[in-house]
Amino acid sequence: MPHRPPIRTAQGSDLDALVELEKRCFATDRLSRRSLRHFLSAGQHQLLVCGEPVQAYILLLFRRGTSLVRIYSLAVDPAWRGRGMARQLMEAAEQRAHEHQALFLRLEVAANNHPARALYSALGYHSIDTLPAYYEDGGDGLRLEKRLVRHLTQSPRLPFYAQTTEFTCGPAAALMAMEHLQPERQFSQIDEINLWREATTVFMTQGHGGCSPQGLALALSNRGFKVELLQSSDCIPFIDSVRREDKKQLIAAVHHYFVEQLAHTFTRVETTALTTERLRQALQQGYRTLLLISTYQLNRNKAPHWVWLVAMDDNFAYINDPDCDPDDRRSAIDNTYLPIRLTMLDKLLGYGKRGYRAAINFGNK
Ligand SMILES: CC(C)(COP(=O)(O)OP(=O)(O)OC[C@H]1O[C@@H](n2cnc3c(N)ncnc32)[C@H](O)[C@@H]1OP(=O)(O)O)[C@@H](O)C(=O)NCCC(=O)NCCS
């Protein structure tokens, strides 16, 4: 058995060696010195290394509130390959994922990277998606996943639409669910903006307002879907988030208009505690469900946010979250079929001091 140095957490003094290793291992898509420095500081990530100076590393990203671990990068110095170092680091990653009670690990690999693909396949990773022209050199990528809980089936392929503005999470979540219902349709930014123009509250804490449950329900009903609006109370959503009286008045006026218009449609409005069980029932009825959540548990921002609730099983909910980091084109990987414990989902539901909950169920007529 070849000698392998133990795995340790990287520290600040490893930075130069990591930058050099990155250069030796990757021709394109390298992590910059700045990024590596960031990953050496505390955060929702772990950088594990072997050797002194560093001979190999693996970088894991966690996402607060979720049960997904992403292997963001793995590299072994060419001089140290073929000694089982990558396997050892991958096993350590799995161990850390277990400690985080993760449900699955995900990563991307270049389709032509045969050594890495052989490694991942030997460790039980399966391809869940193809990523055309994913890398800087134009090469295709594959999205791989390993499930850590045996009884679960593989993640499905799902439409994904990343919101193109800060305030269009509702329309973006709706568009992916619409594409799931009507796969022949393809949506673009103008569809996103048109939905928003119909459904926005105009104002919110800062910037443009997002979409209210009533506005979004109305916009979907006007597009010919069968719609059900679930709300925990009939208060005016988001009105508490603005201070100025004139803004409050406008939010109220828009809300009353939505409510009045909804009454002329076949939309069923249900005032309910909106438990996870009620959501499960909606999915079992075949609805696509859009959820209003508070992002506090996910990113410490108390912002209202819309996601598509794709599925639920005994312990987890799976969401498509349209909010991707625009500087990280890889982040859409994390945002598809993102597993969240049901206990966590219950905390995510409920926005603002009133803990207002809302969901929109919709389907083809
Ligand atoms: C891919 C990489 C991490 C493998 O590192 P390594 O330490 O040499 O791999 P290991 O010795 O732990 O090998 C583990 C398994 O991977 C597979 N593997 C590794 N190198 C391989 C090669 N050149 N050809 C085929 N299979 C290979 C084998 O299944 C091997 O198991 P085995 O030894 O029982 O046959 C390394 O080649 C590397 O750093 N490449 C450049 C960076 C990179 O591509 N990173 C992955 C990005 S997704």
Gist of the model:
By secondary structure, the chain is of the alpha+beta class.
Overview of the molecule:
There is one protein chain. The protein has a seven-stranded mixed β-sheet, sandwiched between helices. The chain has a seven-stranded mixed β-sheet with strand order 9-8-14-10-11-12-13, sandwiched between helices. Strand 8, helix 8 and strand 9 form a beta-alpha-beta unit. It has helices spanning 15-25, 33-40, 85-99, 114-122, 169-181, 189-199, 213-222, 245-263, 276-284, 296-299, 332-335, 342-348, and strands spanning 7-9, 45-50, 56-62, 68-76, 104-110, 126-131, 141-147, 226-231, 268-271, 288-294, 304-312, 316-320, 338-341, 358-363. The chain is of the alpha+beta class and 365 residues long. 33% of the residues lie in helices and 24% in strands. It has twelve helices and 14 strands. It has two domains: 7-147, Aminopeptidase (3-Layer(aba) Sandwich); 169-363, Cysteine proteinases (Cathepsin B, Chain A), CATH 3.90.70. The site of coenzyme A (COA) has 19 residues, from strand 4, helix 3 and helix 4.
